[in-house]
Design a protein that fits this description.
Helices cover 15% and strands 29% of the residues. The chain is α+β, with helices and mostly antiparallel strands. The protein folds into two domains: 1-13 and 28-65 and 188-334 and 352-471; 66-186, Elongation Factor Tu (Ef-tu), domain 3, CATH 2.40.30. The longest helix has 18 residues, at 227-244. It is elongated, with a radius of gyration of 31 Å.
Length: 471
Amino acid sequence: MAYDKGAVNIPNQYNFTSFQSLDKPDNDSKLVQPFKNTLSGIFKEVGSTKATTSQEYSWWEKNRLMPLPKATNAGAGSGAGAAVVFTLDASSKTAFGSYDPYNTNTTKQTSANPVRKFDVLLLRPSTGIASTGNYMHLIVTAVTSSTFTVEPQDKSLTIPSVPSAIEIPIIGNIRGEGAGFQDALSTSTTKYTENLQMISHKYEITGSDKLNARWVEELGANLLHGEKDAYLQFLKLQDLTMLLGEKMSNVDLADDFIDGTLGTNNPVQTTNGLFKQVSTGGQTLAYSAIGGVTLADLWDYNSTINKEGADMENALYVGIDLDQQLDRELGDRFSYGAISYGTFNFTQEKAVNLQFSKMKIGSQVYNKKCLETLNDRQNTAAEGMGYSYEGLMLPQGTTKKLGNDEESGQNVSTVRKRFLANRGESREAKVTHFNGLLHSDNGVDIEEMRYLAHIGVEVQARNKTGLWKRA
């Protein structure tokens, strides 16, 4: 029903057993709204949406241009200038499926060695600080499917023992006069797949209650009593799903939806929201739960995201506690008279602004915004929840789309809302009206507003995004 208090319950509010009062109470007709309708606004700010004609949508991202071998060796070289065999770590190999489209009986795997004969590798020192002058240049003299043999360019050097796999970058190659070419290097792409999730909601009122007068006035004269609240609830359900949703991995539970166990024969899909996608592919800043976030954390984080090719300007959506920690940390830097800010004089209204909406740390710019939906008492800020201490860093630029659709090769927003639409019909936020008196078999006197959304989130170039949270 629309409300559980008001005109519908008037008979329950009067009791004439002892006396009858003819006094008319003074009733305030303005409805008080003590709580906010906290919708995140992220997707409205991003302003990027795209319809999909399927419940599953995919995109492709180009992997790193240069390979990065990771390897170990059995022990130090036998002496200065001696050759050493390195064994590739499994993570350095690129695995391909069978190239034979007719071979369906077995799955063949081909692992590509990223190191080629005559490559030049750069080995960091085994102890001490790595700096110019103490790296070792190695020449690859032989390659197998899982190993490569190297010798130092400087014959006076001994290749150290590398018992645990380390990264050994390729910095070039050499070619003898009149020699042929090395093996080719290939690049690759990764396919990412997400799916839409269906969200539904319903508002219900009886035909009689629809016509009853109310003690209070509501905004939206053309809406039914409480209909606006129902629609806002629907938007809130969408908002939380796109922020906090997660794909279902419980196969048994998924089967229960289609085998009658749960009294239904309807398959379901759930979707990964922003937090899940960013946490699985983005760069995490884990700050101390005791000391809070510090400038040192931000300096280190700059270095991390810069290696990932992050945008120089990013949006930072944070919960209230992280927001205030950042303001306090930045404000402390301007104390003791170092810098005066937010000052006033006696000819102006006295005010101090201790809020920082933009931070430039090194070459990185963070446009900070406190996201109220991360501190909603009814969900994200329920007892024991920690979202108010977390934040999402999202690039404000675009990424080039790979794939085979009409957007291939175009620059699109990194974060987009996806929704099902086809044949002239959209399920981004579908609203229908049902009148039981007219449409039901038994003529039940019920009117309903039915809401349906089939939506998901697409986060491209996740390596450029970030999750800030307590360690």
